[in-house]
Amino acid sequence: MKKTKFKQTEIGMIPEDWEVKVIGNLAKINEDTINKNYNEANIKYIDTSSVDKGHLVGTQKLKLEEAPSRAKRRIKDNDILISTVRPNLKHFFFVKKSRNNLVGSTGFAVISSKKINPKFLYYYLTTDKYTDFLSSIADAHTSTYPSFNPDVIENSFCPYPQEIEQKFIASILSDLDFKIELNQQMNKTLEAIGQAIFKHWFIDFDFPNEKGKPYKSSGGEMTESELGEIPKGWKISKLEDYGTFKNGINYLRGETGDTNFFIANVRDIANNKLLLKNSLDNISLNMKKAQDYLLKDKDILIARSASPGEVSLVLGNLDKVIYSGFSIRYRLNNPNNYLYIFLIMQRLKENLSNFAVGTTLQSVNQDTLKNMKFILPENRVLEKFNRIIEKILERTYGNLIQNSNLSQIRDSLLPRLMSGKIRVPVEVRT
């Protein structure tokens, strides 16, 4: 294969056979906006907080007349969404399939490709190098928070290989993202299966009896309790009777120490049912200060504020992993039944909301958690349930590990492909 020669350009070194072009000549920014002729009564709304690092967290179904004033950007297939506020948070997304009523916030720059492969442009605009460029502009902005005007993208430059190479680069990265997305969908399905089993066994009380038949539907004996009818032999317990709570570590901004740690923050808890070490932020603190906040396998984390009541389970290699002061750790005295307790606590947010009738739940504290009551089944039922759910968890955890590895590969390839340091062989391209 012929060795690639490079040239110096406005965006750094790129292959000699590539061009550099102004993005505004290749794409339109905020091309389509809702006006008085818009004929959809209902919209699916995407806010800047609804997307995260290429993933769509969710959309809101709203009546147009009730939608926020910032719901103005019409979104089409192959559009690129990039938040113009705090670009370092990487609120960006590529729209594969849209609908006529898909509308985005004016907090987005909506980029519609015209003379460039849309996926190629998306991947370039989401490189760390380009994100750092947008962040430097945003940080210098004179508003109350870091932001940039959409014309910054319009007037910036991007590499421009031949069309076939744009397509190839986009395909490599898209294939990795597609596999990651498949694993995420699989995990959602597995989670739904686990929740369905939990409901069938511990809400409907139709767990298998000694003969393998559904307990309650087959006439299993029920007794009254303070939480309603429960199977005979089961009891009501408090969370404080089965584990200990501890608030997370507090530290000053800019504080450093003698040891590097991974730290679980509220956003990690809110966005992930299972936490992986290598997905967490890094921080440097003194070991003496942080050692009491080191996490162990099967600890459960609860968000205290921002997303109060959200819970996550931490598993696997947790060497030098700690948790922030905006969260609470729950450590079971006997971790054998951790899966049942974790699924109980996933319903915590709904239960906690009952304490805030007529108001919005603002925070969670240890006293409230300690007094939370739950139904404790017989050991025989718990052991059988845990065996089933552990298999689901193993598959889920395996998918998370695979996605972590795929993401690392993708993040390693992305800047190399975009700079031409990795090229497809000529015979393949042609």
Describe this structure in words.
The chain is globular. The mean pLDDT is 90. The longest helix is centred in the last third of the chain and has 41 residues. The chain contains eleven helices and 26 strands. The relative contact order is 0.12. By secondary structure, it is an alpha+beta fold. A five-stranded mixed β-sheet has the order 18-25-22-23-20. Among the domains are: 141 residues, Alpha-Beta Complex (Adenine-n6-DNA-methyltransferase TaqI, Chain A, domain 2); 137 residues, Adenine-n6-DNA-methyltransferase TaqI, Chain A, domain 2.
How are the secondary structure elements laid out?
Blueprint: E1 6-9, E2 12-15, E3 19-22, E4 27-29, E5 42-46, E6 51-52, E7 55-56, E8 60-63, E9 71-74, E10 79-83, E11 92-94, E12 102-105, E13 108-113, H1 118-125, H2 128-139, H3 151-154, E14 157-160, H4 163-202, E15 222-223, E16 230-231, E17 235-238, E18 243-247, E19 259-264, H5 266-271, E20 274-275, E21 281-285, H6 287-290, E22 300-303, E23 311-314, E24 321-323, E25 327-332, H7 338-346, H8 348-353, H9 366-370, E26 373-376, H10 379-419, H11 426-429
Parallel strand pairs: 5-12, 19-24, 20-23
Antiparallel strand pairs: 1-2, 3-14, 4-13, 5-8, 6-7, 9-12, 10-11, 10-13, 15-16, 17-26, 18-25, 19-21, 22-23, 22-25
Helix pairs in contact: 4-10
Keywords:
430 residues, alpha+beta, Adenine-n6-DNA-methyltransferase TaqI, Chain A, domain 2, five-stranded mixed β-sheet, 11 helices, 26 strands, globular
Which fold name is given in CATH as the topology of one domain? Adenine-n6-DNA-methyltransferase TaqI, Chain A, domain 2
Which strand-content bin applies to the residues? Answer: 15-25%
Averaged pLDDT = 90
Please estimate the helix content.
25-40%
CATH superfamily of one domain: DNA methylase specificity domains
Reading side by side through the largest sheet, how are the strands ordered? 18-25-22-23-20
CATH class descriptor of one domain: Alpha Beta
Distance between the termini: 13 Å
Spans of at least 5 consecutive residues whose pLDDT stays below 50 are: none
